[in-house]
Amino acid sequence: MKRVQSIDMIRGFCIFLMVLGHLLDWWIIISDRWLIFYLFSFLASIAATGFLLVSGFSAAIAYKSRTRKAETSTDITMTQARNIYFTRALLILATGLIYNTAIALAMNDLRWIWAWNVLQTISISLLLAWPFLSTPKYLRIGLGIGLLVVNELLSPFLLTYSDQMNIYGVLFYIFYNPIEQFTILSYFAIFIIGTVVGDFLFNINIIKDQEERKNTIKRVFIRTILIVGLIFTSFGIIYRFYDFIYRRTLSAMFYSIGVVLILFSVLLYLEEFEKIRPKKRYRFFFYFSYYSFTIYLAHDLLYSIFYRQLNAINIWFAVIGIIILITLLLKVMYKKLGIKVSLKTQLGILSLIIVKKIEQRKSRN
């Protein structure tokens, strides 16, 4: 299937924003933290929401691709496709828990072993999404919106029981520890909405006739998804006005989903109608997308380099310099090592190997 470059651009942009936001957050002196608020209050929400939304795109496309292959080829069965899917999700979860354990030991706080980092959130979202991937699109959209509303009502209630040893305190720990991270109810909602867009992308990608493909893109993404994005963005801004700049509020979630849908629709149109050539001109974001999981884990090594030492002016020299170095490193890694240092790709390969090993053992018994 044709690779949709616009997905890489959105995912890479979100990872870039994450790295930029974290460096500013870690390195800036306390008295200049106003810079973080004014620059990244709403951008942080777009980065987190965009990454989970695009992960939903990819999950649906991968599911549909394997399902179609299982129906038309003898190379893979639906059982194998399901096993590969679940194995990969569990490997991502294991990686996320190992990462959390390292953080917990460094902070001397074992509660961080269960904490909603992006890897844990994506893995649980993958596991929860499987039963819904073959359901009608309207059901998934309704489920996603419903979960966003439930999260808006539930989180302030459970927050009052934080650190308490009762059933509500346990539920708070399970769903919202720590509440500033990728908590599962809201981000699974975003992920499942993303799978609907992924279905549309898959259906468009299997169209061979270029004229029909372009007409379908116009109809689906310019006349439908773009309009939905505008509605979501408008609702996010209007509902409890000003809340949309604060991450994790219902307004911010709708606003961010809408912005990403608008941006993706425009980029897809420009890509498909060859107004731009993303492969040549937007390689920067491709590297950040291709090594997204690797960057997520590795960029924490930069935490203490200038911790709370830089002001609102000189921090930009350090941050821009580091971003340039990271980009050059990613470019060299891609040319010299390719998939070998892509954690996302390696987990996919490992899941396939594990499933084949299990099947071989079963066949011998």
What does this structure look like?
The chain has 365 residues and is mainly alpha-helical. It has one domain. It has 14 helices and no strands. Helix 1 packs across helix 11, helix 2 crosses helix 7 and helix 3 packs antiparallel against helix 4. The longest helix is centred in the N-terminal third of the chain and has 39 residues. The two termini are 37 Å apart.
Alpha-carbon distance between the two ends: 37 Å
Largest sheet features:
none
Shape verdict: globular
Q: In percent, how much strand structure appears in the residues? A: under 5%
Low-confidence stretches: none
**Could you give the count of β-strands?**
0
**What is the helix/strand order?**
HHHHHHHHHHHHHH
Radius of gyration: 21 Å
Based on the model shown, name its key terms:
single chain; 0% strand; mainly alpha; 365 residues
